[in-house]
UniProtKB/TrEMBL annotation:
Gene3D superfamilies: P-loop containing nucleotide triphosphate hydrolases
Alphabetized InterPro entries for the sequence: AAA+_ATPase (IPR003593), ABC_transporter-like_ATP-bd (IPR003439), ABC_transporter-like_CS (IPR017871), ABC_transpr_LolD-like (IPR015854), MacB-like_ATP-bd (IPR017911), P-loop_NTPase (IPR027417)
Keywords tagged on the record: ATP-binding, Nucleotide-binding, Transport
Residue span, ABC transporter domain: 2-223
Pfam families from the UniProt entry: ABC_tran
The protein's name in its UniProt record: ABC transporter ATP-binding protein
GO molecular function, one term: ATP binding
Length: 224
């Protein structure tokens, strides 16, 4: 599904050039569950942004389903993000004025799906993540774990090719973290491809494959 060839990305900070990714090559298969680990500055978040078509490498090649991403227009990249990738963030990124259903169906706003179908799909996904009794609650009326479940339902609403989860348990207590990871594991067992960034070893242990990064390079890969 994903092939990276010699991906390089750097940033300029004053007169200093910081290399965030240094010739990274990687393959992720369909229905894999991969976790990226590394300390702050290791390059894992930059890599996640490139995988999610939120950023582009300065050199190297990124193939998504055998299609070269780097040659696509901004409009085409936006289409890929909206139709093929589901995002889960550490801070949930829910809109405070919308209830759970409204937040989940938000990515469908720019699609040709009718509002009625979007609502039906959102409600079905909220039931799937165990929030059938919280559909019309707004984020401030829910716990952190419930808000993350809403975010997971939102990530699934477009039937994405893959889910990108950036520190999905970073703001949760250990019991809630285990519940969220059990849900992601269930989604993976149902055929979902999941790519996750985490700095927690016990969270990475849920993944099939753990990729450790340091100074913009892949240092090791292990299969759990």
């Amino acid at each position: 599904m994903i092939t990276l060839h010699n991906i390089r990305k750097s940033f300029t900070n004053g007169e200093e050039t910081i290399v965030a990714l240094n010739d990274v090559s990687l393959t992720i298969e369909e229905n894999e569950f991969v976790a990226f680990m590394g300390s702050s500055g290791s390059g894992k978040s930059t890599l996640m942004n490139i995988l999610g078509c939120l950023d582009t490498p300065e050199s190297g090649q990124y193939l998504l389903n055998q299609n070269p991403v780097s040659s696509l227009s901004d409009e085409a990249l936006s289409k890929i993000r909206n139709e093929h990738i589901g995002f889960i963030f550490q801070t949930f990124h829910l809109l405070p004025k919308l209830d759970a259903v409204g937040n989940v169906k938000l990515p469908l706003r720019y699609s040709d799906v009718s509002d009625e179908v979007a609502t039906q799909r959102a409600e079905a996904l909220l039931k799937k993540v165990g929030l059938e009794h919280r559909m019309h609650h707004r984020p401030f009326e829910m716990s952190g774990g419930q808000r993350q479940r809403v975010a997971i339902a939102r990530a699934l609403v477009n039937n994405p090719t893959m889910i990108l989860a950036d520190e999905p348990t970073g703001n949760l207590d250990s019991k809630t973290s285990d519940d969220i990871m059990a849900l992601l594991t269930e989604l993976h067992q149902q055929g979902q491809t999941i790519v996750m960034v985490t700095h927690e070893e016990n969270i990475a242990d849920y993944a099939q494959k753990v990729v450790t990064m340091k100074d913009g390079q892949i240092m090791s890969e292990r299969v759990n």
